[in-house]
Amino acid sequence: MNNRKVHIYYSIIITSLILFFITLNVMASSLKLLSQETINSLIQATSNPFIGLFIGLIATAIIQSSSAVTSIIVTMVAAGTISFQSSIPIIMGANIGTTLTSTLVSLTFVNQKNKFRRAIAAGTVHDMFNIIVTAILFPLEITTGFLSNITSFLSNKFKSLSYNFIDTDISFITHETKISSVIVGWFDSYILLSILSFIILLITIKLLAKYGSLVLIGESKEKMQRYFFTNPLRSFLWGTVITAGVQSSSVTTPLVVPLVATKKISMNQGFAFVMGANIGTTITALLVAIFTGGAAINVAVVHLLFNLFGVVLFLPNKAFRQIPVVLAEKLGKLTGQYRIAGFIYIIFIFFLLPYTLIYFSQKSENGITNNKIGSYHEQRVDNQ
Question: How far apart are the C-alpha atoms of 90 and 237, rounded to whole Å?
């Protein structure tokens, strides 16, 4: 890669970062100006943790960026549009939704039976990992407030860092700047402004991911094979660093799929890298939260805790680490026999199942589940 290209890439990255934070500021300003009726609708839609979980899953699966979803959630919590406790299930759902990218990449091997089997396994090990962690933490959070209680303690430490780093009276995100004030003044519809802000935010994240990966990884996958996958710990660390740099696990985790499909690395090596990517992808929300301050820091800490829990559970223990790998390989084997199984899996897990469960969650509005949910939210509010 020549120096001219590198300078261009860095210029795009810096410009995208500046635009990213300006857009967050505009979005926060526009959210604060939404009508009370609109805000009440958003609060009501996310007050059921089951619905929140599947909203996060579907939204991330559609736009293919958990960084965008979590950044928006941080901003919405900072603006008071949704509550911190409502954001937790959405963050969990986003972690599952972001795994769709790797699974879609595996479909490119559909015409090569053996490679397709290994590609599906490599693509879905990320799914299995996040689904298992969610299956453990989601009910634990609803019944005991496991993540909320730990976050209440840890977020105070992050808040101290935020207050020392930037004066809360001139917080970059939560208080309107001159630039955002001018931009907001151009629009009569704050809903339209919020939508446009979201689109620009997504574009900036995609640009950061694309050009960040070119700077950090380059155009050769051979470099990844040679330096990043010598052992599980090294794979994990590189997965964390590279994903933090490009701010998108949707860019880094799919790189593992062709390497596993062509037997250049093992499933275990690829899985360790994926776990690292799960930690690295939390950096975006942490950066936003440090500049935002207040309740938004809680959201970023929850995102980090969720992914750390999975790593602590699976990375040190070889037997545990095999569980997502074995499940993914079984799905790969099934897909090798019946190729339609891969397509059915994607449609069912990422779209059909979430929509169906959202429908039934809404139907059970007055049932026992929502009574428990109401108690959960009441308890979390009392603790905040």
Answer: 26
